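Dear U.,

For the methods section draft, I wanted the exact inputs and outputs in one place so we can describe them consistently. I've listed the two proteins in the order they'll appear in the manuscript figures. Please don't edit the C-alpha cell lines directly; just add comments below if something needs changing.

First protein:
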Amino acid sequence: MPSTLSPLRWKPLASGLAVLALLLTGCAAPKYTTDDGRPVNPELLANIQHFGQGERALRPAMARAAQLKDPDCDRQWELPFSVATSQQWAEADRVAWVRALGVDERLTVVATSPGTTLKPRDKLVEIDGVHDNDAEDMLEALARARDRGQAFQVKTAAGATVNVQPFGLCRGYARLAPPNTPELQDYHWLMSYHPLEVARADLSDDEALWTVLWTQGVSEEGGARMKTYHYGSQVLSSLYTLATVATGLKGAAVAAEAAVAAAQKAAAAAATEILKQQLIDQAKQFAAARLRDELGKTVQQLTQAQVVASMQQLAANKGMLGGLSRIAATVFDKADAWAYTRMKQLGADPLTGFALHQKMLERGLLRNALPFDPERMTSLQARADKDGRADDVVAILKGIRTDMLDFDTDQMPLASATTDFSYEDPVAVDASNPYAFGLIEAMLGTTDSAMPSGKK
C-alpha cells in the first residue's frame, strides 16, 4: 500500500524543495541570445553574412599559404579556424549575429580550414584549460595558445574535445572589416583590414589565396618603409591581439568606427580642387562614351570607357588613403608581384589577380586595394608577358589591354607615389588623433585604460 505523508511532515519537505530550487536557479547556466524573430538592422545583418562568407573563403586559403614555408619572410602563427562573439553588442544586434551566423555571446566558430574537426557554429567553452563566461578573457586565452605555436585543446558546448594545431605563415594577418564598419580599409605591416566588399566578390579558392598572399606581400615589401615612417609602435594593450583572433569583437568594432571617422576627415582634407576636377572629368568621359555608343559606336568602346573610369577611380581610392595605409600603398605593385610569384610556387594560377580585378570591375567593387590601378596593371602585365601569358591575360580582361586604353595620366595626380616616395604624408593628419595613423596602429598603442570596450 503506497505511503502517504501527513501535512505536518509535508510542510518542511516542501520548504526544503523550495530552497533547493532557489539554489539550483542561482547556479543555472548563463542565458545566451537566441533568434526570437524580432526585426533587426537589415544592413548589419547583410554585413554579418558577408563577413561569414569572406571568413569561409579566407581561412582555408591561409592554410594553403602556410604550405610555402618561406624561410625568408617574418612569421606569424595562425589558427585553423576563426571565431566571433556577440557579447557586449546591443540586444538587437546580438539577435542579428545569431540569425546570420549562429554566433552568440560565447566564442563561436565562423570558419575552418582543413585539418580541424571543428565546424561553423560550434561554441568554445574551454580553451587550453581556461573556462570563463567573459568572451574577452576566452579570446586572450585563445591568442596566448595560438602564439605559443604548440598544439592545445578546446572543448565545445556539445561536449567534444578537439586538438588544435596552430600553423606558421608569412607575416601579415588578412582580416575583414567589422560588420558595423564595412568600408574600413587599413594596411599595416602586422595586419591588414580589407573592406567587406572583398567578401561580396564571392572569392574562389584561388582568389582567396591571392588575397592572403597579397596581404603578406604588403607586409614583406612595405614593412621597413612603414616602420621608418612611424616607428614608435609597441603593443601596450590586448586589443590588437584580440582583434587578430576575432574580427567581430565589440571593442575592436567601436575602435573601427572612430578610425573610419578619422579616415573620412583626412580624406575630406585631401579632396583638393585637383581631385574634385579629376572625378568630374571621369564622369564627363563616361557620359561622352555612352553618348558615342548611342550614336552607333560599338559596345566595345563603351566597355573600354567603363574600364578607364573604373581604373581611374581605383587610382583615386589609393590616393585617398592616409597614415600608414598611404605608405603601404606605395608598395601595392610589389605586393602584386609577391602574390604572383608565390601563387606559382603553390601550384595555383598566377593570373588569379587579373581574374579578381576583372570580377571587381564588373561588380563595381572599387573601394578596396585588390583590383589594379593603371600603373599596377601595366607592371603585372609585363610580368605575365615574360611568362608567355600575354594572350591569357587579354582573355581574362575580356580582350582589353592597358595599351588599348586611353589613360590621361595628367588627370590622375594621386594615382601613384611609388617613384616619388616621401615620408611626408601629403594627407593632412592630426597627430593628436589616436587614429591618425590607422586603426591597427591605434590598437597597438592604446593603453588598457583607454581601450574601447563597447560595454553598456
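Second protein (the one for the lower panel):
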Amino acid sequence: MLVNDELEIGLIVVENPGNHPGIMHLMASASHPKYFPNGIIESVVGTGHSLEDQANTALDNYINSTFVTIMDSFSDSHNPDLDFMTIVNDKEVLWHPKLGTLTVQGQWIKYPEGEPFFDLLKDKIHNQLTTNKINWLKIYISKRAEGEIIGECLFNNIPWEVASNEIFNYAKTWKMTDEFHGLKQFIMFRRCDGYDEVNG
C-alpha cells in the first residue's frame, strides 16, 4: 500500500501455532525511498473472537502507536518544550522529537506520568542521531511479578545497548500491582527545516 505516492506500508500475518486462537500477530513495515528505505519494522497484536476483529484491533494498535507518529515526522510541526540542539558536522542542528503515544499494558494502580522514556534518554540521544533527516527510536519493556524483565530498545532498527540498560533499570523500580506491567513507545526525531536552510 502506498501513502502519498512515497510511503509504502507492508503488512504480514505471523503464523505462530503457540498463539491463543483469539490473538493475531502482525508485522508491519513502513518504508520511504529517501528517509528510511530499509523500513521501520513494528510488531503488533490484535485480539477478538473473529479474524476480522483481530485484524482491526491489530491495525488500530499499529496506527495509534506507530503510523500516526511516522506521518507526523513529515511535518516540521513541533513542541518547543521537547526540542533540543546537537552539533552535526560542526554545525548546530535543531531537532524536533515526535513522541508517539505511550502504550501501557497491565493493570497499574498509577500509570507513569509525563514522558518517562524520553526523559530517561534525551541526554543520551544526542550521540546517536545520524545525519539523516529523520531518525527513530522503538522502546518496549515489560516486567512480571516474579521480577522477570523483557525488553528492547532499537535506534534506526539497531539495538541500542545504553538505552536498553536505562529502561531495564527503570523497570526494576516499578512497584507491581498486577502479574504483568509493560510500556511501549515509538519516537521520531526530525531535523528542523529552518536550520537546514540557515546552515545549508
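Candidate sentences for the figure legend, describing the second protein: The chain has a mean pLDDT of 89. The chain has two domains: 1-72, 78-200.

Thanks,
Y.
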